[in-house]
Amino acid sequence: MAPYFLRNLVPRREEGKHSRPLLTVIASVTWLQWAQFFCGWLAWTCDAIDFFSVSLSVTHLQDQFNKSTHDITTAITLTLLFRPLGAVLFGIVSDRYGRKWPLVCNLVLVAVLELGAGFVHNFKQFLALRSLFGVGMGGIWGLAASTALENLPVELRGVGSGFLQEGYAVGYLIAAVINLYLVPEVKSGWRALFWTASGISLFTAFLRALLPESEYFLRAKEADRAKGANTSKKTKIFLHEVKEMLKRHWLLCIYAVLLMTGFNFLSHGSQDLYPTYLQQSKGFSAHNATVATIIGNLGAIAGGVVAGFVSQYIGRRLTIIIMVLLIGAFIPLWILPSSFSALSAGAFCIQFGVQGAWGVIPIQLAELSPPAFRATFPGVAYQLGNMVSSASAQIETVGGQNLKTTIIKEGNPTVVPDYAKVQGIFIGVVAAFVVLITIVGPEKHGSHFEQHKAAFEQGAAEDDIPEKDLPSGAPDAKESFHQIE
Q1: Which GO terms describe its cellular component (predicted)?
Q2: 76: which of 11, 138, 182, 463 is 20 to 30 A away, CA to CA?
């Protein structure tokens, strides 16, 4: 008999029998559901703009603070290291009190810290602000994903997941365009990128404040109010359910962190040092490196949307595996050519695979999560994976210091770091790990998690959703990680 994780690699045929046609589902979505999805998407886009402000400004920051590439990438590492703290804090508050105001506060905090980063005068101040910034950024993903996906019909969540995750690539694109056209034209230089990012985050916070709380939480609060539960009692129940959830799902927690470690190494390893790789190892100008980055992120957007859609039909894990195998196939095109056109094509194809695989992650983690903890569990797993992978840029920098190549620069042979070889080896190893960890993992394709109790209700730590609350023909939502044979 085949192992459980292989038998369950493709969704069972009966899971799709009662699904409505995609166009019918899209037509049924209300303007409020679209608005909440857009707010979640925009919040995640802001996170990417804010994060990649440093990656795109490495050269400018080196000149500003008179530091090496390795020193500047310390700011990236510190941001990633502190993100799990933000995921825990904002995730718990969101699962306990709701999606709306925790996300608004989170975005305001990010806006203030990003604004401050544009006013620093020395490197120590910059590192301190980026460390605090990591706390603010850490909360965004879990809150954005739960806000965007839990209000959509179950048949639309795969597509929604792909669009949501590619807010990350869109954020990279926006930051790159600002860096390309605004930064060179203003006296403030690189600081203008940080200030613009701050304004976009503040606008998103304002937009979310205008919209109501998630219907899922409004329904749960109304039911709890009818039972006469007070705030102190709900908090006590919440803390008890968190403890029970950890006791029941500790193995799932470990798996999710391992999965997200691989995914974060995959994305950060292929993106954080990419502009530097093109400039130093391939001799591109800063302008051409930015344009190649934009082309790569167009591939990312296409990959995420396609993979999210496909995952609704062939399953989450199988889609991830196919996308990661595409990454391996295109590594040579990503690192071997020297021309702008060929390397740009390689960037497009690699990011199609990387962000295609990532496009499935929001819904995969939402469906795997203990249903009542869909802000905390995915957010913490994602950011712990971020923390483990936080040294990606520095690992590649050290690799470049030890692996050298020679290029012709201004007519003369010049010895430079061989970031092409370093990134090719790095991404190849990480891709193999991601395929393995995905194959052995669980999947709850089509889970109706929106029917579950909220985290402040008695019994929230249980996986079971009463059958009377499930739509007719819905897949069994009771499967869990401990059922793997």
Answers
A1: plasma membrane
A2: 182
For every residue of 264-300, DSSP letters joined together read HHHHHHHHTTHHHHHHHTS---HHHHHHHHHHHHHHH
Quote the domain boundaries for residue 299. Answer: 30-213+230-459+476-483
Is 391 within a domain?
Answer: yes
What is the predicted pLDDT for the residue at 80?
A: 78
Q: Which pTM was predicted?
A: 0.80
Which strand (E) or helix (H) includes residue 13?
Answer: none
Domain membership of residue 8 (yes or no) is no
Number of domains in the chain: 1
Tokens found for residue 231: 């705030």
Phi, psi (5° rounding) for residue 411? 85, 0
- Both tokens assigned to 461: 């730590």
Kindly list the distances between the CA atom of residue 466 and the CA atoms of 107, 117, 453, in Å, as whole numbers in the listed order. 36, 49, 10
Give the helix, strand, coil percentages of the chain, each rounded to 5: 75, 0, 20
As separate numbers, helices (DSSP H) first and strands (DSSP E) second, the chain gives 20, 2
Q: What's at 293, amino acid-wise?
A: T
pLDDT for residue 406: 75
Residues in the chain where the model's pLDDT stays below 50: 1, 14, 16, 465-485
Task: Report how far Cα 371 is from the mean position of its chain's Cα atoms.
Answer: 19
Q: What distance in Å separates the CA atoms of residue 322 and residue 313, rounded to the nearest whole number?
A: 14
Look at residue 10 and tell me if it is in a domain.
no
Coil, helix or strand for 221?
Answer: helix
Beta-sheet strands, E only, within 330-456: 404-409, 412-417
Q: How far is residue 369 from each of residues 24, 215, 251, 362, measured CA to CA in Å?
A: 28, 19, 12, 11
Domain-located, residue 224: no
d(CA 272, CA 304): 19
